[in-house]
Specification:
Layout lengths: L42 H29 L4 H9 L5 H10 L2
Length: about 100
């Protein structure tokens, strides 16, 4: 028996024609880098600025309404103050004026 080392695993049997499949690596979780989605910068700052400008206007309107109410002689606080004056002496009134009451 002739020693034919060209066969399958060094034997005399002929190796069938094997067409190897090339390796095709596939992506695995964590093996590829994906850039995170980026939020457009500036949009949030503009929205915040608009909100704060609206808040500023609202606070200014509130202050104007409160100022008008405090100057109105018919409101509750002014009526209570005016009702308390008749029982006070001139010295008490002068002391109140000095203290800014």
């Amino acid at each position: 028996m002739p020693n034919n080392t060209n066969g399958l695993f060094g034997t005399a049997q002929a190796a069938p024609s094997i067409n190897p499949v090339p390796i095709q690596p596939g992506p695995l979780p964590g093996s590829t880098f994906v850039r995170p989605q980026q939020v457009a910068a500036g949009g949030n700052a503009e929205a915040l600025a608009r909100s704060l400008s609206g808040l500023s206007q609202a606070l200014q309107n509130y202050a104007n309404v409160k100022d008008q109410q405090s100057r109105n002689p018919d409101n509750r606080e002014n009526k209570a103050f005016l009702d308390s004056l008749p029982g006070k002496s001139v010295a008490d009134l002068q002391l109140m004026a000095q203290n800014g009451e």
